[in-house]
Amino acid sequence: MELDTKLIHGGPLIDQHTGSSSVPIYQASTFHQAQFSESQEFIYTRFGNPTRKALEETVSCLEFAKYGYAFASGMAAISAVLLNFSQGDHVILCKDIYGGAYQLVTEMFPRYGIEYTFVDETDLYAWKKAIKQNTKGIYIETPSNPLLTVTDIRGVVNLAKKYNLLTIIDNTFMTPIFQNPIKLGVDIVIHSATKFINGHSDVTAGLVVTNNQEIAETLFKTQKMLGNMLPPYDCWLILRGIKTMKIRMEKEVENAAFIAGELQKHSKVKAVYYPGLEYHNGREIHFSQAGSGGAVLTFDLGSYENVKDFFAHVSIPIVAVSLGGVESILSYPFTMSHAVIPEKERLELGVTDGLVRLSCGIEDKNDLLNDLFKALDHVKTADVLQKKIL
Ligand SMILES: Cc1ncc(COP(=O)(O)O)c(C=O)c1O
């Protein structure tokens, strides 16, 4: 089955009992047991629910995985995976990482006696150098948030296999439309489905898929114990969003590629970070493992003051935490997605006070560009001495 077909038929499309053209919202906490002393497929919604199952099957199909689990948010999914490491384990993670994952690792791992090391994700040797005797897992995000750095998935997987390490990837930015890490040998794929998979900025959700039965059993048990599963109505909304994910994303990517190219030429923009740009670091690796540059780009306006002037004059994108909606979303990583990272480390990472992240929606690309350019007219300084193209 090709991707376009999988999006519609990858999971159950119709209700097996009534034939309804959309899987119903099984809004029930529990299920009548015809034989009270015998088990049956659905017992209690925390353990399993038909609407959630339909979503889990659909996403597993899209990601070439056998098993899938739907969680209440991307962070619920990330924590369900990461908190399954044990006392004394060591985990290696990319340094350009979503702020919430950073906070989970730096604040909760020490309480459970789990060691961690952040590495420069673009340097395969850095991953290798960080491996210790007690290393158990590798966690990557590519392209990363917010600087769109690229990790060589195949390279990291090869390393992990050699040292018998579990590989985990946050595939939120690329989605199964453009990047299929399971096919590249990754063990666990995580999504914040709040973003492109749902696509309408009206649900928070997380997904985890794997091909490994043992990992799947652990995830199922974790979800059951922590009770952090996605409610039926939200599962239904995501199932609905998935059907149009490809056509939405194609337009969003087209817009992002166009905007990145134009912003790169603008005198008030110091740098543009977008894997689709010719000079982006890791571009070649990115396109060897992904099908597009994605719909998110980050650009540098040089200072907080410039960002303030810019945000005050944009009218098409909303200014908000999040990405992946049909509407364009501008955000300010310095005080939004990455605020939890201590300032010194944030600056070392390159998450400076001039950075703006844009998630392109499906609006007309010229309307979007004109709106951004109009706002840039209000940015006072044009002190770009040396344009940094990455
Ligand atoms: C790359 C990435 N992973 C995970 C998350 C967390 O997802 P959620 O907000 O659904 O918990 C986010 C949220 O912005 C994200 O950008």
From TrEMBL:
GO terms for cellular component: cytoplasm. Its cofactor is pyridoxal 5'-phosphate. The modification N6-(pyridoxal phosphate)lysine is found at K195. Gene3D superfamilies: Aspartate Aminotransferase, domain 1 (3.90.1150.10), Type I PLP-dependent aspartate aminotransferase-like (Major domain) (3.40.640.10). GO terms for biological process: methionine biosynthetic process; transsulfuration. GO terms for molecular function: cysteine-S-conjugate beta-lyase activity; pyridoxal phosphate binding; transaminase activity. Keywords: Amino-acid biosynthesis, Aminotransferase, Lyase, Methionine biosynthesis, Pyridoxal phosphate, Transferase. SUPFAM superfamilies: PLP-dependent transferases (SSF53383). Pfam families: Cys_Met_Meta_PP. It comes from the Bacteria. Its EC number is 4.4.1.13. Belongs to the trans-sulfuration enzymes family. This is cysteine-S-conjugate beta-lyase. It comes from Bacillus salipaludis.
